[in-house]
Amino acid sequence: MLRAFKGKGRVLALSLFLVPAVSLLSSCSRSGDAMAPLLGITQPRSGAISEGQKVTVTGYAFDDSGVASVRVDGKEVLPTDQAGKKLAQFGFLVEAQKGGEVELKVEAEDANGQVRKLTLPLTLDTQKPKLVIERVEMTEDKLLRIVGKATDDVEVDRVVVKYGKTFSRLPLPKGKEVSFMIQVPAKSATVIAVDAVGQRVEKLAKP
After folding, report:
1. Domains and CATH numbers, the chain
2. N or C, where is the chain less crowded by C-beta within 10 Å?
3. What is the side-by-side strand order in the sheet with 2-5?
4. Quick check: pTM over 0.90?
5. Average pLDDT of the segment spanning 85-111
């Protein structure tokens, strides 16, 4: 299922594709407009979705002569208020069906009829992340120390520790395998791992 929506707001700098950062696009100039539009996808960052999930895909197209059209699998998704702009933002919804991977064909066309095409792969992530607690101990300062790792077949988005009424997100990089060492002022704590599509697993840690 595919549905376009009118997108507004700031364009994010991160892209899944090797294109220039959005913050630099407005200062670019191509004499004679000899190139097709630049095209980038800003969300979803991981390219992963869960079964039955409705995912908002957002992106941008840039062209000196103005962006006339953005199509996904042949369907127009460029909002009318973005048509003709040099830097145009677009978005659409995708509902995940059963299957391992789906590819969307995205095209951007400028006012002179030049077209840029790219393929957006979306992976159906049905597996929850895995969480391994390797060591739990009390320190001499009476802090609870937890050592472990979280893994996911696509990406571990975040690891959170809960003790009492406190939730604390760990300052860790995202990746398929994330190791951590936690020290909290508690006798027990719950470690929570969340993957790129929001699936989560948690474990209680105590000596």
Report:
1. 2-124 (2.60.40.650), 130-205 (2.60.40.10)
2. N
3. 2-5, 87-95, 54-62, 38-43
4. no
5. 84
